Fold this protein.
Amino acid sequence: MDGIVSVKNLVKRYDGVVALDHFSLEIAPGEIFGLLGPNGSGKTTAINCILQLLTYDKGEIRLFGQPMTQTSYDLKRRIGVVPQNVAVFEELTVAENIDYFCGLYVPNKAERREMVKDAISFVGLEDYARARPKKLSGGLLRRLNIACGIAHRPQLVFFDEPTVAVDPQSRASILEGIKRMNAEGSTIVYTSHYMEEVEEICTRIMIMDKGRTLACGTNEELKAIVAAGEKIVIEADVSEAALLRIQALPHAIRAAYGDGRLEVTCENGEHNVADVLGELSKARIAPGRIWAEPPTLNDVFLEITGRELRD
């Protein structure tokens, strides 16, 4: 049985450069699916191909169990898109903007009126319904952007970096809204450069780079497939020579030092902390506060791709 999104062996080239290299993806109904990759990894290209905003060289795309084509208007009505860049009309009010975008899918004015009202309430813009976008803060603009993309109550919603450059309160509101949409029946595809957001809300996560899938699974499954066991953090004044010796420890995956803080990522082992402290003792370095952290999604991403997410 097909998932709500099914992509098989998708290939996309730009002037001979391969952007998607036999890329495949399966998303089940009801998931919040996180799509992670460095800049240029192919995330946006994949989404645009799925939405038929880009042509592609080969492959198969099915949504809701049906082939997705440029003229699949019945399928497109069931999809919502919240782009990274805010896309609203400055000359229209908040309510008028939402009504316009909802009207692309819902011609009935009476039905649309209720949908617009619900969307405004959903994103918490009741006090700004008659305001124009230029009067809104960055966080409120993001909420308007979301309302425009989801007012027609889509079953499948693509969120592309919805919390970029917003304040913590708006970010929390947006994430809660996404979880609420999912609880009410929408399947979500979510891209973000904020690992903590992906860890918080996504049921499954795919890491991709160079147009290919590198790993896919739940947060815990991804952490289990890499060698990283724990991160040891020590406040100390660490010399370059001591750092090199710590990096050479048998179970050390990586070690970095900055701002008075030593961070050592290790494979699972019984004596990791003792080994690191032993090297500090040899160098006559007195440690301050010491603690250990379980591996994060960022640790997994770095080990799998060899790159930071924002590279």
Remarks:
- The longest strand covers residues 17-27.
- The chain has a mean pLDDT of 91.
- Residues 168-183 form the longest helix (16 residues).
